Amino acid sequence: MALPDQPVDVVLVGGGIMSATLAALITTLEPTWRVEIHEVRPALAQESTNAWNNAGTGHAALCELNYTPEKPDGSIDISKAVTINEQFELSRELWNHLATANRLPGGEGFLSSTPHMTFVRGAANADYLRRRYETLRTHPLFDDIEFSTDPAQIAQWAPLLMVDRDGDEVVAATRSAVGTDVDFGRLTNAMVTDAVARGARLHLESEVTRLSQRRDGTWRLRIKDRRWNGHSRSRKVNARFVFIGAGGGALRLLQRSGIPEAKGFGGFPISGQFLRTTNPSIVAAHQAKVYGKAEVGAPPMSVPHLDARVVDGGSALMFGPYAGWSMKFLKNGSWTDLLRSVRPGNIVPMLAVGLKNLDLVKYLVGEVTANDADRLRTLRAFMPSAHPRDWELITAGQRVQVIKKDKKKGGVLEFGTELVTSADGSIAGLLGASPGASTAVATMLDLLERCFPDRSSTWHPRLRAMMPSLGGGEWDESFELDQLVDEVRSDR
Ligand SMILES: Cc1cc2nc3c(=O)[nH]c(=O)nc-3n(C[C@H](O)[C@H](O)[C@H](O)COP(=O)(O)OP(=O)(O)OC[C@H]3O[C@@H](n4cnc5c(N)ncnc54)[C@H](O)[C@@H]3O)c2cc1C
Description:
By secondary structure, the protein is α+β, with helices and mostly antiparallel strands. The protein has one domain (about 1-470): FAD/NAD(P)-binding domain. It has helices at about 15-30, 80-100, 125-135, 150-155, 160, 185-195, 250-255, 280-285, 335-340, 345-355, 360-370, 370-380, 440-450, 455-465, 480-490, and strands at about 10-15, 35-40, 110-115, 115-120, 145-150, 170-175, 180, 200-205, 205-215, 220-230, 230-245, 265-275, 290, 305-310, 315-325, 390-395, 400-405, 410-415, 415-420, 425-430. A hairpin with a 2-residue loop joins β14 and β15 (about 315-325). The protein binds flavin-adenine dinucleotide.
């Protein structure tokens, strides 16, 4: 038995999809390591990872226009779409591997097959969509994509888009049959349950409040145990490696760690709402995820979309997100989060971003002041027959967009994710939210490579056996999946 002061090998802060993914990878690669997961809430996946707090899109760039920008010469740049698609493939391969090894529920447990569509209105948008389609379909990853400007065809793909629509309106759509909807909350619970079965320790209502590096390079974490009738108790845990997968709480903990790599980062919180219906006749009439085009100034993740969802085995439709603004960094966070994140090192980037993103500010003011009628109007642009009695408003997860230092501009606002790692590889934290949960596996593989370079040669063959497309290489015939599944079973 380990002594109380003896460091555990890995502490994962936060019980969302990122920590769950890292737990799955580490407990597979190093079954003897001591792994602890600390989650402040009484259950896992209560923040962005909760199925109703995100849109559940398996982002593979099959329908999201922000991954295929138009270049000044009118051609379409698909490089980001290819990267996202490849990253999502890694996620699918890991999930498939874990399901094959009976470590995750198979079938419809958390992943549903849902065609991904893009739908636009107006001649200019239809022309852009056609050019995007023509570029994408030449790439083998997107060769199943279909395009149509025919209202009858679009109505066949997604009837609700066309019912009650003005017959004179120019519309266009693309469709890819291989899209997915993911219940990331269910997936996270299943992955952590599996990690616990493999020896990881899960601590709920357990908040990491402070962390500091000791002389020997390990980390000392102060942890508040919140279970005792509202009175919290503190304890300390030492760790060789810490991952801060605390979502909106990550910036604060990274700042507290004192690592120079975290200096200059700030956060810009954007809240969101969705409309949801569980009316069976409406749900049955829409079996797709349909993404539209963002308004001028709207951040890329605020693109409206009408989604078929499968959450905890039940079906629903979701529309949104409607962006909003809140000073909180977590849905269950505090109104002081934003103010407390301001540091001498990030004040210039934060001010620069505030001054240089007036389009975004204008857009958010419009969204914050929107009422039920405005929201219905946005929904009806997608689904003209929508009736308010069928839809309820729900609050989505909180996103904290990354603000970064920039030599020329002072600071820039980023809509992606940023993995911050210390030079010695003993701590890492994840900031930002997009494309988020879908690419959790690629992000956590990046973390392993950056923080454990000395293990790379041992781990890589095992990782490739789990995820054949890893490294862009062909399937390594010398390492059979069945063999790995057997090994995994015998590790238990
Ligand atoms: C509106 C919206 C729509 C989205 N849509 C999609 C989508 O369609 N597809 C997609 O792939 N991604 C989507 N995302 C992004 C995706 O949800 C996130 O990228 C992902 O869930 C982040 O996972 P995480 O584990 O980093 O964070 P989280 O899920 O936020 O988990 C962090 C956890 O850390 C805990 N925590 C915080 N501080 C502490 C502490 N000090 N001690 C202990 N625990 C702590 C929190 O309680 C929380 O459980 C969306 C996000 C939002 C907000």
